[in-house]
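User: Reviewer 2 asked us to show a designed sequence for the structure in our supplementary figure. I'm pasting the structure tokens here. Could you produce the per-position amino acids so we can include them in the response letter?
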């Protein structure tokens, strides 16, 4: 079978000659007997079990001497516990967490990683998003997040976990209290402390596992540097075992630090490291009792490029299923804190309220390695082009306003400027609609977006509504709002892996309404409702703005959208639009009260969500829990830092600056800036003026309360201002068509 295809059933025949297998078995038996004589103890009670494990040895890849030695060690481990056992229900079985930092789905092949291949063949499999705090996750942060049950980071040069200091059967993590007292990782040790409080024994193999299982004082109950040191008695006594397989990530480290470079190893070097990692994993897998629930996780990135990593759960009934979690609302994606919750749940240990993860769930049948490889490849295609996309968008916006300033006073050029404005406003929504089409390459991605762009622009400019000033605005704003509303109602598949949406490997969001989609959704909704208010002024139009705006707000702020900052920003936008339409003044006090009302509404959504079971809560409900436990300030501080960082973004701020400058200048000096286009639009439709002001209010408030900051306001302006100009140009064109020509005027005079 080709690597990356459908997973086969576990296969132990490796087509080696009988002579080679016989020699290996003899070497294994002699090595085990010699080890027992020298140490007085061993994993096996006789040579027969060593011989029985020799077939497992043959599964490891041959080549380098280190690999051969690892295979021999793996074969010396017993499998005597496996016969006739069945999986115990949650709370009574054993759990083994095998963390292979840097492992992604392209690594697994039957030839290079036979032990891991057999493991995933009998498991539910999915993608693991390893995002913690930074853009990439090092092994230290990955294991620390497992320990804490919430996204965590060491806070300085990140790389390998610290080497434990042995103490009797266990060990301690050096300077562990630094993480809690200085680095601000107050939840570090949650997993180990929970196990200790429940009277559960645990075994850590390797430094990362020791960090993951350490209690609040940094103490590890049982520690081994290698799986070859684990005894049968340990496995019988302890129901929790974690192993750090660092053979794959070690070659990437420089002085125990993870350099910020894409990939340091050649494919051949990475395969060599994978063989070592596979042999070490096989050493533990060969001795685990059959009632052990096995979790395999690629706990970190291996360079400067984030990837979706391996997640697998082996237990009865899981084989061939997708593996996901309610934390992401994706049947094939889970996050690092889910490992903490899954481990505790399987052991029957209460999950602390500070743990943000939920137990992983085996979903539908039909999981294949190829499917998960494509998921990461799609995310990488999007990520690699995202910077260029936003740069191009910023250039197009700036270029448009410069050309509009030069051409608007030339009446013959007005139709072209109107078409360009409509096309520019239609561009953002194409980043979502392209996900209705199959794509995996840059050519397919941009080709699909161009097709949608042409279709929406043609629809806006070619229909009978094109003669109406508000026609193109109604089409583009309506398509934008309806696209995102439909996406929210159908599981947000359009926002995932889109330029304007979110991607799983970046880990900012996995479902609901993203910050940039909120800006487009709010703007599209407000502009669409102003068209209704223009067509049916008075109470009908006012009711449409309040009703549709409130419905959109609920859609975005409830469990479907789960957008905390969006509701806070949307409420004042709706209220300001409605007040202006009703002829009332908007004061700063009223604006502040509207913002407070938005906060109250979203906290109500969050509180209702918090009352649901922990595994059904979204980040809204978990935020309430963080408020109650005193952790909310850390979250708010991180989001504030992220928001301030966007104010210097070279792709976003130019859009804000040129759009606001053009708009202000067009209002203050209408004849100089826009040849009267903006005043003409406002004169034609007072409802549009109200909607634009409401959009600006939502955009500014959204910029201040969301971690995406300037991205929110820039995308609101990118949609609203071009459509405003298109409307104003439509008004001027209608006036020219309706005004009599010179000949007609002379005829009237002569009569």
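Assistant: Here is a per-position design you can include in the supplement:
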């Amino acid at each position: 079978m080709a690597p990356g295809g459908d997973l086969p059933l576990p296969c132990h025949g490796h087509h080696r000659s009988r002579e080679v297998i016989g020699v290996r078995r003899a070497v294994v038996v002699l090595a085990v007997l010699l080890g027992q004589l020298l140490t007085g103890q061993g994993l096996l009670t006789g040579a027969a079990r060593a011989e029985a494990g020799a077939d497992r040895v043959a599964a490891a890849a041959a080549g380098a001497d280190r690999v051969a030695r690892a295979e021999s060690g793996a074969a010396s481990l017993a499998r005597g516990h496996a016969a006739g056992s069945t999986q115990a229900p949650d709370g009574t079985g054993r759990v083994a967490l095998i963390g292979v930092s840097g492992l992604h789905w392209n690594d697994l092949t039957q030839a290079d990683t036979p032990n891991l291949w057999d493991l995933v063949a009998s498991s539910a499999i999915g993608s693991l998003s390893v995002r913690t705090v930074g853009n990439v996750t090092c092994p230290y942060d990955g294991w620390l997040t497992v320990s804490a049950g919430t996204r965590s980071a060491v806070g300085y040069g990140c790389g390998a976990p610290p080497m434990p200091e042995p103490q009797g059967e266990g060990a301690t993590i050096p300077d562990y209290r630094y993480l809690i007292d200085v680095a601000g990782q107050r939840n570090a040790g949650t997993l180990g402390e929970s196990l200790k409080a429940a009277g559960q024994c645990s075994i850590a193999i390797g430094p990362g596992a020791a960090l993951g299982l350490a209690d609040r004082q940094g103490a590890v109950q049982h520690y081994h540097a290698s799986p070859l040191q684990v005894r049968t008695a340990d496995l019988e006594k302890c129901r929790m075992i974690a192993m750090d397989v660092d053979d794959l990530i070690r070659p990437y480290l420089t002085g125990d630090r993870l350099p910020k470079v894409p990939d340091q190893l050649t494919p051949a070097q990475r395969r060599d490291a994978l063989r070592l990692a596979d042999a070490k994993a096989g050493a533990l897998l060969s001795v685990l009792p059959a009632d052990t629930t096995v979790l395999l996780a690629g706990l970190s990135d291996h360079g400067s490029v984030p990837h979706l990593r391996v997640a697998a759960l082996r237990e009865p009934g899981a084989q061939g299923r997708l593996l996901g979690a309610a934390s992401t609302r994706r049947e094939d994606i889970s996050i690092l804190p889910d490992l903490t919750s899954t481990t505790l749940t399987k052991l029957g240990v209460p999950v602390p309220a500070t743990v943000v993860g939920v137990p992983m769930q085996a979903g539908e049948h039909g999981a294949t390695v190829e499917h998960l490889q494509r998921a990461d490849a799609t995310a990488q295609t999007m990520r690699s082009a995202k910077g260029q996309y936003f740069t191009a968008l910023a250039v197009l916006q700036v270029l448009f306003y410069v050309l509009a300033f030069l051409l608007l006073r030339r009446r013959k050029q007005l139709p072209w400027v109107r078409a360009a404005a409509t096309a520019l406003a239609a561009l953002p929504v194409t980043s979502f609609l392209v996900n209705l089409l199959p794509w995996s390459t840059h050519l397919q991605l941009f080709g699909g977006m161009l097709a949608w762009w042409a279709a929406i622009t043609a629809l806006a400019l070619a229909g009978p509504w094109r003669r109406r000033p508000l026609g193109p605005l109604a089409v583009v704003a309506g398509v934008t709002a309806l696209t995102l509303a439909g996406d929210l109602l159908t599981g947000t598949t359009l926002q995932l892996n889109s330029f304007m949406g979110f991607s799983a490997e970046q880990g900012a969001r996995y479902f609901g309404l993203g910050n940039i989609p909120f800006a487009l959704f709010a703007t599209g909704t407000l502009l669409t409702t102003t068209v209704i208010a223009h067509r049916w002024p008075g109470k009908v139009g006012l009711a449409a703005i309040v009703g549709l705006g409130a419905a959109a707000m609920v859609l975005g702020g409830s469990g479907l959208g789960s957008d905390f900052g969006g509701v806070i920003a949307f409420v004042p936008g709706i209220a300001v639009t409605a007040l202006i339409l009703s002829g009332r003044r908007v004061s700063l006090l009223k604006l502040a009260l509207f913002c407070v009302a938005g906060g109250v509404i979203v906290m109500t959504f969050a509180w209702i969500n918090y009352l649901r079971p922990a595994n059904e809560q979204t980040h809204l409900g978990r935020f309430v829990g963080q408020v109650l436990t005193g952790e909310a300030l850390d979250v708010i501080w991180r989001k504030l830092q992220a928001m301030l960082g966007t104010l210097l973004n070279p792709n976003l701020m130019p859009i804000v600056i040129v759009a606001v400058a053009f708009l202000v200048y067009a209002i203050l000096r209408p004849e100089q800036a826009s040849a009267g286009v903006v005043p003409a639009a406002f004169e034609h439709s007072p409802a549009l003026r109200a909607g634009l002001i409401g959009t600006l209010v939502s955009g500014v408030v959204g910029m201040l309360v969301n971690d995406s900051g300037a991205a929110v306001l820039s995308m609101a302006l990118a949609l609203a201002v071009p459509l405003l100009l298109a409307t104003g140009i439509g008004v001027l064109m209608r006036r020219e068509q309706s005004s009599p020509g010179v000949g007609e005027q002379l005829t009237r005079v002569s009569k």
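For the response letter, you might also mention the following. The radius of gyration is 31 Å. The first strand starts at residue 94 and ends at 100.
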